[in-house]
Structures
1.
Amino acid sequence: MDLLIEDSIIIELKAAEKSNPLWQAQLLSYLRLSNKNLGFLINFNTILFKQGIQRIAL
């Protein structure tokens, strides 16, 4: 877990060329283990920043 915002949102930061499905599984595991409902997977290696953001909610 890279960041925990306001004790409710988990942020996972990446900087890779290709997205990896394991990152989503990793974030889901963090959400379940910490009893949080919302997480963001952010990949900084994209042309447009908004293309690198994925919202995951339980």
Note: Residues 21-34 form the longest helix (14 residues).
2.
Amino acid sequence: MKKKEFLDALSRGLSSLPKRERDERVNFYREMIDDRIEEGIPEEEAVAGVGTVDGIVSQILSERPAVVKEPRRSGAGGKVGLILLLVLGFPVWFPLLLALFVSIVSALFSFFVALWSVELSLAAGAVGGVGSFFVLLFTGQFAPAFFTLGAALVSGGLAILLFFGAVAATKALGRGIAQVARTLFGWMKRKEKNNDEVA
């Protein structure tokens, strides 16, 4: 038998081994045959000198420790443990979760109330400033009138800029709330589907 035939047959015989271990064993016998050939022994004699494929495979497989596969555990034990943990931990995790949720909602609500309050204040300042400009102008107070008009224009410009930012932030919040609602709804739907499949 030629070296290639021998090594191919050996690899097939050891196909039950992990690839790395199989390659190591085949390479060991390849080097052994190559050493014999370098010593001047003809290839077929060098191959015959290492033993038969069946004998080598039997020896290698018998030397390996028996692998005992543990029976697969069903996921029921893990689910029961998780449910038990959730139920027993409820007095701890639920108030913390609720406090976190309320804090986040309160912070977001406060931010948007403050944002729109500043927007309305700037807009009111612009309208009031224009009204004051005309009152001061008709009473002959030109310097304060033009100062008030400048302040009203600045206030109006800031109100316009802030309006676009406030609208964008409000839309982003609306999209975020909608995404959270969709996620929760999808989670509840999947949970319901899983419960129906189990039943």
Note: The chain has a mean pLDDT of 84.
3.
Amino acid sequence: MILLPENYWEIRNTKNKGRGLFAIKDIPKGIVIGDYIGKIIHPLEAIIDEENFYLMYYHDHAVISPDLEKPGVYLLNHSCIPNAFLYIYKGHTLAFALRQISKGEELTIPYLLSPKDKFCDPCPHICRCENLKCSGTMHLSKEKYDKWRKFGDTRARETKRERIRYGKELPLLTSYPKKISEDYIGEIKRIFNFNSMDQKL
């Protein structure tokens, strides 16, 4: 679900990544873009899901499968140098602007995949962001993944996760934060070294 008003974004086709979400007016730094909403399913069911590329982790025993017919956070393509990021709030995965996103830019996030293992061979998670610092993969290094999980898990515990039911839609929150704190953004930039990689940050 996109929480930004419709006059901030539009869906377009990209050159080599399918559809994407683009800013049609400047989006301020820290603003919450949307919530990753969809049906709650067990990870074992996801193995046979043809759309499992769009699945979002909820916890070790549940993933979120979005409705691809509706605009949503799943439209944000991966980038090694993203202009948006993810924030876990009451179990929900919220996307927010990591820096000011200028009119005309595609909104992107890192997919934060665990380090590549023997089961990802051949690996379909090839990055096509074409940034000069592109790593060529959507997988994180073990060092960055461990730092992200430690930080993300700690921050996620600050708000209580709501109960879910398999086969049901993840219920919307009664209220959403409008903006993510500078403290959180600063820590993300430090962990991923985004300051030295993108002058706009």
Note: The CA atoms of residues 27 and 43 lie 34 Å apart.
4.
Amino acid sequence: MLDKGNHPYIPNSLQEIKQEMMREIGIRSIEELFSDIPEKFRLKRKLNVPEKGLSEFEVKKHVEALLSRSETCNDMPVFLGAGCWPHYVPAVVKEIAQRSEFLTSYTPYQPETSQGMLQALFEYQSMICEITGMGVANCSMYDWASALGEAARMAARVKGRHEILIPKIISPERAAALKVYAEPAGISVRQVEFDAEKGHINLEDLRNDISDKTAAVYIENPSYLGFIETQVDEISKETHANDALFIVGVDPTSLGILRPPGDYEADIVIGEAQPLGNPMNFGGPLLGIFTCREDMALVRQMPGRIIGMTTTQDGTKNGFCMTLQTREQHIRREKATSNICSNEALCSVVSAVYMALLGPEGLRELGETVMYNANYAVHLLSKIGGVKAPVFKSAHFKEFTVNLDETGLSVKDVNQKLLGRRIHGGKDVSSEFSELGQTALYCVTEMHSRDEIESLAAALEGILGGR
């Protein structure tokens, strides 16, 4: 009979073993292991876990009951994006990604990876290069935010400078991640003001801020708030005139209808590939895009891994290999530029299948559908009394802002009322950009039918009219 607190399958749950381990590392209690956590964040009570264990069947029923309380984008229209967007994933994408050859491949960042996985990753890189107009792509980052952080550090290494300019209108979470990457490397991050009418970067402010200390200028197109930046050529010219790198962040679903960044001489292109076949999965995993010009001074500083294609010695067969990889496991730790691991490989395969399935015409059709649906929603919402949609006088792609200042209601209140009508409204950005007042960021994609968009407009009009 085991003592209370001991576990039949965990040897170190025995008290005498715990005591021996604590003596070895020089502590008197388990709590000392958490001494670096401030008191205010510590739980002051025991966990609410039943003393008596449950059977597997009971645990399954309990978990299913908890899950049944959640509702997903399949249960109601969801107009929430802001970095993770609702898009349709064709059945063939899931079917191929779930094949055991891909799903169970061990450590697909290692040189001994199978030829099949290497080819799939090579195809992903090739298609990402094609849609962005760039020369070289790695086979993915964790997400857009980590790609931005790595791009900033890469630019600093290449240019020997330690300042990055970014737009003021950017996801606060993305900006926070950039800061985490930049500060340890001694990189300062400065924000460039935006045009109050159109939302675009203020070119005069950019010219005043850029200097011989600037390693790179970063923009997003479309922006975090959905508008399309139309000054890309001017920004590119100003950046290169100051010998800085031009970094562009993209939503790849827009590249079927918008100019690829390679066309306006971007040096590094990053973004989020989640909408390319990867479901939202309650927020992750995501998939960061990272590409650059075909310049070895840049390529050798790229994070992640790059898959290349070669031939057998007799030239009769193609073969694939890990051409460059800058993981800390394979080169001197202080010179490593990435520790991207296994999970991104499967997400890259998913995106490769999705892009191959759509092809150039499918990507263009997707972009047109998304833009049409979003602008149809703008058209309907802008007719509602007291609503301003969008806030900026610019063309928008997938997302757009809706301001409620004249209605006297807050975004939070309206979103609660929309949920009561089984509609998930847009993201409340009033605390992120206080100068925009009570503003929400709405997302509309190919997933939103005409009826759902009209239902949103009718519901919002009813809420604001007190019905």
Note: The radius of gyration is 25 Å.
